[in-house]
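Two entries, shown back to back:
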Amino acid sequence: MLAGRLPATDVLVVGAGLAGLHTATALARRGHDVVLAERRTRLDSTVRTTGIFVRRTLEDFDLPPEHLGPAIRRMVLYPPSHRRPVVLDSAHDEYRVGDMAPLYVTQAREAAAAGVRILLGTRYVGRRGGHHVLHGPDGPAEVRARFVVGADGARSAVARELGLDRNRELLIGAEEVYPVPRRDVVPAFHCVVDPRLAPGYLAWVLDDGHQVHVGVAGYADRFPRGMRQALREFAATAPALDGAPRPDDGAGPGAVGPGPQVERRGGPIPVGGLLRRIASPHGLLVGDAAGAVSPLTAGGLDPCLRLSEHAVDVLDEALRTGRRTVLRGYDGAALRARFRGRLTMRRGLSMVRTPAVAAAGIALVRTGPGQAAARRILFGNGSFPDP
């Protein structure tokens, strides 16, 4: 239930994705009163992200292993023709795919156990006087919070309300996820560079022997026949799906069940780099709302967790000292300077507009220096700078 005037709180966190849940839980564990508002009525519905956790995240953060897929050590890069792919193998467990729906539920239970008050089905409206206005199942309500945290995605309403920067360069992505019978397969992350299917980014098949993810992403205005059609075309031709059972209507060999077993995901991906103004005296941004996504690889889970840790340190000090000026130290512009190389590569990838250019790029990756550079990007541990 939600209506009227709610008890005052130290921090109002808006959005219960990974960044919002992590920030809220960590602040509550430091003794602060936290309210978490999420517009979804269930955290295990409307999952948008592929949920790829990289080695650095797996090493540094305590993630529930029961919600992580098998380790992936192989990356395969394909030109538009799908012939002569570049296979990169690592000596380390580089990626694991999170089963995000139950992971969100588990994280929410931990948040509640830490004392976070979670309001589901509750939308953030904005500020009115000294209060924040929420709209829940029973109508509008107001809550007074010393600070507000925007963890509400790439098109953040909190950013708009606080007068902070907002994401302007966005990819749009869509994927299908379906379970497969466990089989003898080398878990691998397959990526196709083809501007006809994924203009400015990639098409992918992620097969860890437990689930298969088939997706495309790119600039919305550059899909020749729309993103959904691109996904259908890719799913029908992707070379990495050879031998992988496909979902269908439940008939025929290799079926994994009826159509509803396919989970469809999609949403915007900010790739313009960390935003410059991500804090004001009244609050700050984390996760996609802050642009905490790698401009080149579009990976956002490791950056969102690391920026959330920084946000918790800053807010904890501000709450303990009573000095709002502490939030000046939460400076996106200073951190953004560390992304210059990846921002330059993002601009380069965005200019790949023909299959011939894409094929030439993969040919360069086949060389010794090209493979070394690809390994640094794909198997490196520099997804986000240390604040």
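entry 2 starts here
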Amino acid sequence: MADTTSLDAQLDVFQTLGSDLRIGILKEILANRGTNLRQIAQKLDMSMSTLSPHIAKLEECGLIRIVDMPASHGVQKCCYPAMERIVIDFTGDAARQSRLYQAEIPVGGYSDFAVTPTCGLATESAFLGRLDEPRLFTHPDRRRARILWFTTGYVEYLLPNFIPGEGVIDSLSLSFEVSSEAPQHNNNWPSTIEFSLNGTALGSWVCPGDFGDRRGLFNPEWWYDFLNQYGLMKKLTINTEGTFLDEEPLSDVTVRDLGLNGQSVMKLRFAVPEGLATSRGLTLYGQGFGDYNQDIRLAIRYHMEKQ
């Protein structure tokens, strides 16, 4: 399973990969996620002046992303892959040519919730009020939250949909960093997390733990070491074949079953049900927390109906 795109839409990627040198740089980044520019230059035996334009080209076409990380003296630029796979549709049917709409949703940008303690929210600089008080999920500054957690209940996000009104959605994907929620942290703390869209169950997944064996790569300095530190990057995709979490089928629900188009209002819910042995909470990490430094990323692939 993978989302498809058109040949024309990825010409810049193919042109970028037309260089053996850039392919070698990309392979190094794929093998050593988070490697910095100097390490790449040393490994491939090239100067920084030679490396820099190739790195810029890889970043410009979306194959890698550059993240500023603290170093012993100032900051260092570290490289991460930004794309896992590309599947090309060679049919050339212009009427069904895949188009892409993307957006990021702040972790604190939920539109509805019902949660139980342990629970809380935090911005990059502080907790939002006292911990373990569900009413603080109504805090006026909640959209500034970069991390949230709760034991049972749900948070629901109203997904932005700004594709043309006559557009037909072929796939909807969301990527997010997630863990369970243990008091403090516990790497072995399985929790059942359910996903639904507009009230339709998409399936569930058991998150293995609430990870705290090391600090998250992007956590602010004030974040306590004894708290949860990072999660797993997951990708939820609904397309014409079904619903998938990463590469694994989650259910048979398709975008056609949901009737998604350019006029659709879409409400995505993350929930932890009550009463299970694995009702052990959920933590969502946004930009500035965890290992991936991103909010909830939405990608909608669509085509225009023939006129």
